[in-house]
Amino acid sequence: MAKTIQADICVIGGGSGGLSVAAGASQMGAKVVLLEKGKMGGDCLNYGCVPSKALIAAGHAADTVRHAGKFGVNGHEPEVDFLGVRDHVRGVIAAIAPHDSVERFEELGVTVIEAAGSFTGPGEMIAGDTRIKAKRFVIATGSSAAVPPIPGLDHVPFLTNETVFDLAERPEHLIVIGGGPIGAELAQAQRRLGARVSLLEMFTVLGKDDPDVTAFARKRLVEDGIEIHEGIAIKEIAQDGNGIAVSIEVDGKPQRIVGSHLLVAAGRRANVNGLNLEAAGVTYSAKGIEVDARLRTTNKKIFAIGDVAGGYQFTHMAGYHAGIVIRNVLFKLPAKVDYKAVPWVTFTDPEIAHVGLTEAQAREQFGDKVRALKWSFEENDRAQAERATEGLVKVVVGARGKILGASIAGLHAGELLQPWVLAISQGMKIGAMANLIAPYPTLGEVNKRAAGSYYTPSLFSERTRKIVRFLQRF
Ligand SMILES: Cc1cc2nc3c(=O)[nH]c(=O)nc-3n(C[C@H](O)[C@H](O)[C@H](O)COP(=O)(O)OP(=O)(O)OC[C@H]3O[C@@H](n4cnc5c(N)ncnc54)[C@H](O)[C@@H]3O)c2cc1C
Ligand SMILES: NC(=O)c1ccc[n+]([C@@H]2O[C@H](COP(=O)([O-])OP(=O)(O)OC[C@H]3O[C@@H](n4cnc5c(N)ncnc54)[C@H](O)[C@@H]3O)[C@@H](O)[C@H]2O)c1
C-alpha cells in the first residue's frame, strides 16, 4: 500500500529547472517534494552542457598543441589518450555533482524521491510506493534526443548525447546527423581529438543563428577537416560490415558515407511519456507541454518549465523559468516570461553568441529604420596578439539608436555578449555602449567600436566639418 505525503509543491525532474525551483522554494519555507527518476542534475550535468564543454576543452587543448607553431612554440600533432579524456569529462561532472546531489537537497529541507512520477489525478501523483498530494506541481522533465524516421536507423547502433560521452576510444570515423549546436560542438571536439568526422545537415549548419556570424564557425569547422554535407537528404542507413553506411542524396545525386560510429543530434523531443498528463488535464503536443505566459499548463495548478515546455531549450532558460514559477507559486505574483533578451552561445571555436533580434527579424518588424553595425576582430589589438582575428560583432539598432539585437562570432563571444544582454533587457540605446571606457587591450573593445560606428556617418560628415571649421574662428 502506497504511503501518502502532502506537500506545497511537488517538482517532477531534478535537472536545471526542477532543482532551481526545489532549492529556492524550500529555502523560502515551502514544503517541497522532488521526484527524479534518473541522475540528479539532469541532462545539463550528466549528458549535456557539462560533459560537452569538458570535451570541447580537451579538443581545445589538442588544437593548441597542434597549432602552437604560430606563436613560435613547438607545435606538433598531439597524442590523445581517449580514456584520459573520458576521465577528464567524468572528473568535471564529479566536481559539480555534489551541488546537485540528493544529500544537498535533503539538507535544504527537500524530500527527494528517486522514482518516476506519474499523475493519478489533477492534484496527485504516484512515484514508486509514494503517493504525493500537492497544492502545486511543477513539471521539469526535460527533453531527449529526437530520433528522425530514417529507414534503417532502428537497425544500427547509434550514439546520442546520453551515450557519446562514454566512448572509451577514439571513433575512427564519426558520422553526425544534425548540424545544430549539439552536432556542431561535438563534431569539432571529436575532430580535434583525432576522429575523422562527417557532419550531415538537411538545411544549413547552425541555421538558427545569423549567417554573418555562423560563417566564421563554419569556415573553422571545414579548416579543422570536418566533412560537411549540407542541404542533403538521408535516404537510408544500414550496417556495412563493422561500419555504418549512410546513403544520402545531394542535389538529386546519391552518395554513400561509411563510418565507424553514428551520432544522432537532430533536435529534441519533450519528456512526457509516463507522466500520464491526461489524468491531470495537462495538454501537450509534439513540441512539448502547452503553457501560458505565467508557465501554467491547461491545469492552472500545474506548471511546466525548461525543455519540456518546448520553447528555448537552454539551462539558463530553465533557471529563468524557475524564478517565474517561484514568484507565481510562493508569492502569488502574476509574473510572466519576457523573451526580449534571451541569449545563447554555441561553443564551437570560434564561439557564436546571440541575443535579441537578428537583422532579418528586426527588418521584418521595423523596416528601414534598422541599422546593422559591424566591427571585425581584425581591428582589435588583443585579438591580433592572441592570433584570434577571425570574428565579428554585429549589432542591430532601431529608431533613435535603440539596441535590438547582437550577434558575435569570435574568441570568448559568450563573455563579450553579456553587456548586450544587459543593454537589451534594460532598453538601452547605442550611445551607452559607445561612451563607456573600455580597458585596453581587451577583446571587449570590439563592442565599444561597433557601437561607436553608429555615429561615424554623422561625425565625419561635411556638415560636422563645416561646424568645426566655423567654431575654430573663435
Ligand atoms: C549535448 C548537450 C549540450 C548542451 N549544452 C548546453 C549549453 O552549453 N548551454 C545551455 O544553456 N544548454 C545546453 N544544453 C541544453 C540543456 O542541457 C537543457 O536545456 C537543460 O538541461 C534543460 O533543463 P530541464 O530542467 O528542462 O531538463 P533536464 O536538465 O533534462 O532535467 C530533467 C530531469 O527530469 C527527470 N525526469 C524525466 N521524467 C521524469 C519523471 N516522470 N519522473 C521523475 N523524473 C523525471 C530526468 O531524469 C532529468 O533528470 C545542452 C544539451 C545537450 C543535450
Ligand atoms: N551551447 C548551447 O547552448 C547548446 C548546446 C547544445 C544544445 N543546446 C540545446 O539543445 C537543443 C537541441 O540541439 P540539437 O543540435 O539537437 O537540435 P537543433 O534542433 O538545434 O538542431 C538539429 C539539426 O538537425 C537537423 N536535422 C534534423 N533532422 C535531420 C535529418 N534527418 N537529416 C539531417 N539533418 C537533420 C536540423 O535541420 C537541425 O539543424 C538546441 O536547440 C539548444 O536549445 C544548446
Automatic annotation (TrEMBL):
Keywords tagged on the record: Disulfide bond, FAD, Flavoprotein, NAD, NADP, Nucleotide-binding, Oxidoreductase, Redox-active center
Keyword Oxidoreductase appears in the UniProt entry: yes
One Pfam family here: Pyr_redox_dim
Cofactor(s) this protein cannot do without: FAD
Cofactor note: Binds 1 FAD per subunit.
Residue positions binding NAD(+): 178-185, 201, 267
Residue span(s) of domain Pyridine nucleotide-disulphide oxidoreductase dimerisation: 342-450
Disulfide feature: 44-49
Signal peptide region: none
Record-annotated FAD/NAD(P)-binding domain positions: 8-321
InterPro entries recorded: FAD/NAD-bd_sf (IPR036188), FAD/NAD-binding_dom (IPR023753), FAD/NAD-linked_Rdtase_dimer_sf (IPR016156), Pyr_nuc-diS_OxRdtase (IPR001100), Pyr_nucl-diS_OxRdtase_dimer (IPR004099), Pyr_OxRdtase_I_AS (IPR012999)
A GO molecular-function descriptor: flavin adenine dinucleotide binding
Record-listed FAD binding positions: 53, 117, 141-143, 307
Record keyword Oxidoreductase present: yes
PANTHER family assigned to the protein according to its UniProt record, in alphabetical order: MERCURIC REDUCTASE
Family stated for the protein in its record: Belongs to the class-I pyridine nucleotide-disulfide oxidoreductase family.
Protein name per its UniProtKB record: FAD-dependent oxidoreductase
Organism encoding this protein: Pelagibius litoralis
